[in-house]
Amino acid sequence: MRYDRGVPESLTAAEEDWVAVDDRLRARGRELAEQSGRDPDDLYRTLKHLSRSPAERLRIGLRHGRLHPQHRRAVPHP
Amino acid sequence: MDDSILSTAERCLIRELEARGIRYLVVGMSAALMQGARGATEDIDLWFESLSDPRVGEAVRAAGGIWVPGSFGATAPRIGGDELGDRFDVVTHMDGMESFAEEYAGVRFEVVDDVRLPLLPLRRILHSKKVAGRPKDLLAAHAIEDALIVIEAETTQEPV
Questions:
Q1: Could you tell me which chain B residue has the CA closest to the CA of A71?
Q2: Sign of the C-alpha dihedral computed for residues B13, B19, B24 and B27 taken in this order
Q3: How sure is the predictor about B53, in pLDDT bands with cuts at 50, 70 and 90?
Q4: Is the pLDDT of residue B157 over 80?
Q5: Where are the domains of chain A?
Q6: Looking at beta carbons, which residues of chain B come within 8 Å of A44?
Q7: Which of A15, B2, B46, B143 is surrounded by the fewest CB atoms within 10 Å?
Q8: How close does chain A come to B46, measured CA to CA in Å?
Q9: Confidence of residue B73 (pLDDT cuts 50, 70, 90)
Q10: Cβ B38–A73 below 8 Å, yes or no?
Q11: Residue B145: which CATH number?
């Protein structure tokens, strides 16, 4: 069964749980992308971001901004 | 608090502002991040109701920082100093916004490191970013729109 969906048999139960949650988020991202015309990967990443606490979201954004200041100045894709 | 996002002095400033009843909003990308937009920022933008309120300087000094109130056309208001650092930016102009009082009516609070931060709502940040229209604002606007799409589609999230 697990090979059927491309997941190796060697995963622990906790790792399988992680994959299952991630699969659901990716599927939800695709679903929302079909409804909105947005990029499915962006929406998947947003879903993951929203699953974190507000404090953790701030931590990630500040860390990324400090390490990669050029990333906040890029021009978005049309 | 080793795992803190805000420094001891930064947390102290937030507490001092609240203790004095000073009204301000966290705006810009840091506020958008906390509300679910993906992205990056180097600073935490603060929009004060009144920069001439002497209590702002008192709060900054109580947190060990330096307060430069600024002077129109001469020098920008700022919060700084070795202890407090320069991560808090004082905003003097918000593109596309109504008065502070009108915007404050929609304030959302989030707790970070045991201090309560008053945030400008995500939809108003989006509006401001779109009006500002610089490349980095448009990049942020795109991420904010994604967050709003997801939040509005998920019934468990409160409206923004």
A1: B40
A2: positive
A3: very high
A4: no
A5: 3-72
A6: none
A7: B2
A8: 15
A9: low
A10: no
A11: 3.30.460.40
